[in-house]
Amino acid sequence: MNRSRFAIGALFVLAAVSAAAFAAGVAGKWTAPIDTQIGVQNYTYDFTVDGEKLTGTAKSQFGESPIAEGSVKGDAIAFVENLTFQDMPIRIVYTGTISGDEIKFNRKVGDFASEDFVAKRAR
Predict the structure, then answer these.
(1) What is the pLDDT along the chain (123 residues), one digit of tens a residue?
(2) Cβ contacts of 16 within 8 Å, gap of 6 or more
(3) What domains are there in the chain, each with its CATH number?
(4) Cβ distance 96 to 107 under 8 Å?
(5) What is the largest CA-CA distance in the chain?
(6) Is the pTM of this model over 0.85?
(7) CA 8 – CA 122 distance, rounded (Å)
């Protein structure tokens, strides 16, 4: 019985360490061309991670926005970009899956668009 408790405890610690390593691994600059209804937007994301909290900036040719409501849990990433485009506020909700030097994202742009794209770690 002591061995099974030890094994369960070791698995829990390993899972926690792996999740923290995944989260820390997303910190830094990422780039992505996104094919949108108004043409290709070239984005640069600069992510900072503290535990499971994600902050940073999202920057395109239309401006720069702070990342809000960000989280990294295991290989899952999510955040919000509050963009102002042509004097109109737009809430863009991102969800994605981290896999090495790529993140497969879906983003919902307000109530009018949904876009899938891949961000790559900047070198």
Answers:
(1) 555 554 454 444 434 333 444 444 899 999 999 999 889 999 999 999 999 999 999 999 988 999 999 999 999 999 999 988 889 899 999 999 999 999 999 999 999 899 999 999 998
(2) none
(3) 2-121 (2.40.128)
(4) no
(5) 65
(6) no
(7) 38
